[in-house]
Amino acid sequence: MRPFYVTTPIYYVNDAPHIGHAYTTIAADTLARWHRMNGRPTFFLTGTDEHGQKVQRAAEKLGRTPQEHADLTHTRYKALWERLDIRYDDFIRTTEPRHVQFVQAQLQKLHDQGELYQAPYSGWYSTSAERFWSDEEVAKATGALLKREVTEKDLHKPLDQGGVAGVCPDSGAPVEWLTEHNWFFRMSAYQDRLITHITENPACIQPDSRRNEVLGYLRKPLGDLCMSRPKARLAWGIPLPFSPEYVTYVWFDALSNYVSALQEPASRLAFWPEALHLVGKDILTFHTVYWFTMLMAEGITPPKQVYAHGWWLMHKVKMSKSLGNVIRPDPLIDAFGADVVRYFLLRDVPFGGDGEFSYESFLLRYNSDLANDLGNLGHRSLSMAAQWLGGRVPDVGPATDADRELATVAARATAEFRAQMDNVQFKAAIEGLWELVRAGNKYVDSEAPWSLNKRRVTDAAAGERLATVLRNSMEVVRIAISHLACICPGKSVEMLDRLGLSAPDLTPTLDRLVAGHDLRVGDPLFPRIAELPESLMPADPIVPAAPVAPAATPAEPVPALPQIEYGDFAKLQLRTGLVLTAEKHPKADRLLVLSVDIGEEKPRQIVAGIAAVYDPAELVGKTIIVVANLKPAKLRGIESQGMLLAAGGADIASILTPYRPVPAGSIVK
Ligand code: ME8
C-alpha cells in the first residue's frame, strides 16, 4: 500500500502554543490516525523551529543561552501534544545534530554547484518578522496604516523633511533601512520550472484558491533569496560551512526539517514521495516558492502536496501571540477533554477557511453533536439493551424496509466520510458521517423500542423486533465511533469497549457486533453541559489589567458644565476597538501611536497621551473605547483618526475598556 507522510509546521519555541498551533497538529494527527487505521504505512512528523533572532532575543532577556531557552521551551509543545492525544512518529528540533549536519551538507552541495553567491543587499528590515521587505511592500503597508498613499520616495526621505516611518507588513512595527553583504540563493533561475511544476501538478498546492494565489505571485519576476545572516547581527543559527562568519537564514534551515527527519533510518526516505505538508496560509509562500525551488536545486522532487488552512480569529483578527488575543487549549481540555477540543476545531470550520472562535459556539457544538446526537444514541441503545436484553449484544431478525434504509445510509455516510478525508475536508467528512448518526436516532424514535418492549410480553414477534432494532442502533454507534477514532481517539476506545470491541471496525454493514457479547452501559460518554464552566467564563483571553486601588477623590476638581440635550450626545459615535499595535511616538515622549481595529476595513491610527501610564506592549490586545467620528488631527506630525476614552482628566489614571468582551467595532452608548 502507498505510504503516507504528513507534517505540521515546526513551531517557534518562544511562543506558548495556542489553539492555532493545536489546530494544524490535530489535523495532521487525525489524518495520520485515519491512514494508519486503513493500513497505510504512515509517518507523522512535527517539531520545533529553534533558531533565529526571536529566540536569541527572548533568551537574552531571560539571561539564558538560546540553546537553554529552546531546551526549556520546546517541551511546552510536547506537553500539549500529549494532552491532546497527538501520536507523532518523530519530533524534530532544528538544533539537533542530525538536522544541523543535514542542512550543512545541503548548503555545501548548493555552494559547490554554484547555486549560492555573495552580494551586498539593501532593504527594509523588520526585526519582528526577521526579514527584509521591498520598497513597494513597505509603502503599501504604511499607506494602509496611515490611510493615504505612501510612495517609495516618502519612505526614503528623512522624517523631518516630510518623510514617513515605514512599517512592517506583517507586524506593523517600524522597519529600518539596512545594507549587508550576504549569501544569495539563485531562486530566480527556478521561476519557470516552478511555474511548470505547479501547473502540471495542480494538486501540489491546495485549496485551488491558494494555488492560484501562488501562481499570481509568480507572475512577477522572482528575485534571488537572501539565505544568510551575518553572525555579527545574529549568531543563533546554523553556520554556513563555506563561510563561517554567516549563519543560515532561519527559513532556509527550518524548511529542511521535512527531509532531514527522514535521513535515519534510510527506510524513512520511502515516505518522501507521499509528503503532505499541512500549514497555515501565513506561511504558504515559504512552503511553495522557497521550499519547492530549494528542493529543485538540491535535485529532490517537491512534496506531493502543501495544504494551507485558514486562521482561527478572535474578534475578527488572527489569533496570535503578538496581538495577545489567543485561546489556550489547556482550560478547554480541562473542562471538556481532548476529544471534544479535537472534534470542535475540525468540525466547526471548513479546512482552508478562517473561523471565529467563541466559547459559546464551542458549547453549542458540543451539546448538539456530541451530547444530543451521538452521545444520546449510544447511551440509550446501551441502556435499553442492558435493561431489556440482559446486557448482551442481541441477534438480528429479518430486515424490514426501515432496516434496509438504515443500511443504505450507513454505506453512503461512510463513503462520504472516506472521500472527504481524502480531500482533507474534515468538516464535510464529519457532516457526512452525521447523516448516519441522525438517521440512527430517527430510526430509534420511529421504531420505538420502548413500545416493542411493552408488547413483547404477549407478542413474541415484538421481542424479536426489539432485539433487531437495538442491534441495528448499536451497529450505527459502532460505525460512527469507529470512524471517529481518528478524531476522538479516547472516547472511541471507551465506546468500542462498551460494545465489546477492542479496535475500531470501519465495515459499513450492520452485522459486525458479536451476538451474545457482554455490553457495558457506563455513564453518558458526552454528558450535556448546560453552561460554560466558570473556568472559561472570564474575559479570557483578554486578561484585565491588574486592578489599581483608586484614589479616594479625583486629583483635580471637576468643573460643572451646562446640561446638554440628548441630540448633542448622539452626535458622538463611540465604538469599541481592539488595539492591534502600539508604539511610542517618535517625536513626543507623552504620546503613543496605536493601530486599532474598530470593525472597519482598515485599522484606525490613534495617537493618545497615555505614554506616562501605559507601556505600549500592555495595550496590545486590549479593547478600548474610541470616539470614532472625531475629525482627524495631526499630533506632533502623526495623524490621529479618533480619540480613545480614559478616566482621570489631565492626569490620566486608566483607559476605559468594556466590562465584558465585545467584538471590535461595537457601538457604545
Ligand atoms: O511559522 N489559526 O511557526 P509558528 C490557525 N516556525 N493556525 C494557526 C494560527 C491561527 N490563528 N496561528 C498559528 C512558524 N497557527 C515557523 C514554521 S515550518 C518549516 C516553520 C499555526 O510557531 C499554523 O499552522 O508561527 C501556522 O502556519 C503555524 O501555526 C505557525 O507557527
Question: Would you give an account of this structure?
Answer:
The protein has 669 residues and is of the alpha/beta class. 40% of the residues lie in helices and 18% in strands. Mean pLDDT is 92; it is low at 538-552. It folds into four domains: 4-95 and 254-338, 3-Layer(aba) Sandwich (Rossmann fold); 110-229, Methionyl-trna Synthetase, domain 2; 355-498, Orthogonal Bundle (Isoleucyl-tRNA Synthetase, Domain 1), CATH 1.10.730.10; 566-668, Beta Barrel (OB fold (Dihydrolipoamide Acetyltransferase, E2P)). The structure holds ligand ME8. Ligand ME8 binds next to strand 2, helix 1, helix 9 and strand 13.
Beta content comes to 15-25%
Could you tell me the radius of gyration in angstroms? Answer: 29 Å
The residue-averaged pLDDT reads: 92
What is the CATH class name of the largest domain?
Answer: Alpha Beta
Computed structural class = alpha/beta
Helix content: 40-55%
**Hetero ligands:** ligand ME8
First and last CA, distance: 64 Å
Largest β-sheet summary: 7 strands, parallel
CATH topology of the largest domain: Rossmann fold
Count of domains:
4
